[in-house]
Design a protein that fits this description.
This protein is mostly beta strands and 435 residues long. The chain has two helices and 31 strands.
């Protein structure tokens, strides 16, 4: 969540939240396979499910899968009062354990946002979130599937403002990197003992842009990569500077690799919306062989729609392929990309409104040849009713700034996202599972 410009709008929104049930109920109308995707492969995904009740207001969710077991985890942000919800499944998402509150451990703050979650090879769970502006970005860890958590460790002090953390860990969990915004710079905190101690945070950028990171990965060679957009202009409404920020020395030093310039995003005319809601976003992943895939958005004119592209590198980021168009109908937002269990396997999800201005959907595509080719998009938001913001062609608006995607060792996908009809209310967290 890009919080800095949202606080006034949130204070004025005046809605109330009822926190109820933990499991999704049965929703009435399921769009048929032909309507939801119209291509082979759509049946492999389960019908989307709502986390909680329609009256709940939960947004900006994330998910993670244990690489060595059937444990799966989801997190989402409850609104008013703002708190982070966590739940765990020991059977690949078939059943879920009771909700837990995570991140606010010994810290008293007015709000919580921006959960990020990752699981190491030994099953250890790492979580970062935003605990207010002070202390800001904090880190917690669990060794027992989320039953107990360490005390929150602030990572941004003595900075007086931090926002939008992004988490990337090595497979063994020893190397942990957290990128976050602090006004006109991107900072990265690093730990090489599983989060017990942290080296002094490093300012990773030098340009005077409002940098946000939207995804990160640690490659098998130990290099770490964060996908960023540096917003320029007054009130962050100018064009974006889409780039990768990387380190090959354990986070001691960082370099910025510019890719493309985007223009100011399409205007968001919903009540309480902020000017950079549809700014260019990006994500990065590394597969088991060290092959990199970088998904990014850009538009070709001021306030024009964003198209979604993917470029890849087979030599550690020294050179990149020509960008391949993944989606260029309507406006694209919130990409997430991860690697599957085998080399050359990448999974990609995003939201776009190719079906109409207020007809957004969540889409999925996969590459099994290192990003050279991609399957036709599969529509995951496949229920036409069940909430006031849903209809046959999609949902009214993406609910929040990002979504979540994870893949387990068997190749099963776990996708989670937000749907709504306004910026803060109404809306909810939806999810699905597919192979």
């Amino acid at each position: 969540m890009r919080v800095f410009r949202r606080l006034t709008a949130l204070a004025l929104s005046g809605f109330t939240i009822s926190c109820a049930g933990q499991s999704a109920g049965t929703l009435p109308t399921h769009i048929g396979d032909q309507a939801r995707a119209g291509i082979a492969g759509a049946k492999r995904f389960e019908p989307e499910q709502l986390w909680g009740a329609v009256r709940n207001r939960r947004w900006e969710p994330v998910t993670a899968a244990d690489p060595s077991s059937q444990w799966v985890y989801q997190m989402t942000t409850r609104q008013r009062p703002d708190a982070l919800l966590f739940r765990a499944s020991a059977d690949s998402g078939t059943t879920w354990q009771p909700l837990r509150y995570v991140c606010r451990r010994g810290v008293r703050v007015p709000f919580q946002y921006d959960p990020q979650i990752a699981v190491a090879g030994d099953g250890t769970i790492d979580v970062v979130c935003l605990d207010g502006f002070l202390p800001g970005v904090v880190f917690v860890r669990s060794h027992d599937h989320g039953a107990h958590w360490t005390k929150a460790m602030p990572l941004a002090r003595p900075l007086k403002y931090s926002d939008k953390p992004t988490l990337a860990i090595s497979r063994d969990g020893k190397n942990v990197y957290v990128a976050f915004n602090s006004r006109y710079a991107l900072y990265v905190a690093a730990s090489h003992d599983g989060g017990t101690t942290w080296i002094p945070r490093v300012k990773a950028t030098t340009k005077h842009y409002w940098y946000y990171s939207y995804g990160g990965t640690v490659a098998p060679d130990g290099s770490v990569w964060f996908a960023v957009d540096g917003e320029g202009g007054v009130n962050e409404t100018g064009g974006g500077h889409v780039a990768l920020v990387s380190s090959s020395d354990g986070g001691a030093s960082w370099r910025v690799m510019p890719f493309v310039r985007s223009h100011e995003g399409a205007p968001c005319r919903e009540h309480n919306c902020y000017p950079d809601y549809f700014t260019a976003q990006d994500a990065v992943a590394a597969d088991a062989s060290g092959h990199l895939a970088f998904a990014f958005e850009k538009n070709d004119r001021k306030q024009g729609p964003n198209s979604l592209y993917v470029t890849t590198s087979s030599n550690g980021g020294r050179s990149w392929t020509s960008a391949r168009v993944i989606a260029n109908r309507g406006d694209s937002t919130c990409p997430a990309i991860v690697a599957g269990p085998s080399a050359g396997d990448f999974r990609l999800v995003w939201q776009d409104n190719r079906n109409g201005f207020h007809s957004w959907n969540t889409w999925y595509s996969r590459s099994t040849d290192g990003g050279a080719t991609w399957t036709p998009p599969i529509r995951l938001s496949d229920r036409g009713t069940g909430a006031p913001y849903k209809h046959r062609e999609g949902y009214d608006l993406p609910f929040g700034d990002y979504l979540g995607l994870a893949v387990d060792s068997r190749g099963t996908n776990y996708v989670i996202w937000g749907e709504g009809s306004a910026i803060y209310s109404p809306g909810g967290t939806w999810w699905t599972i597919g192979g």
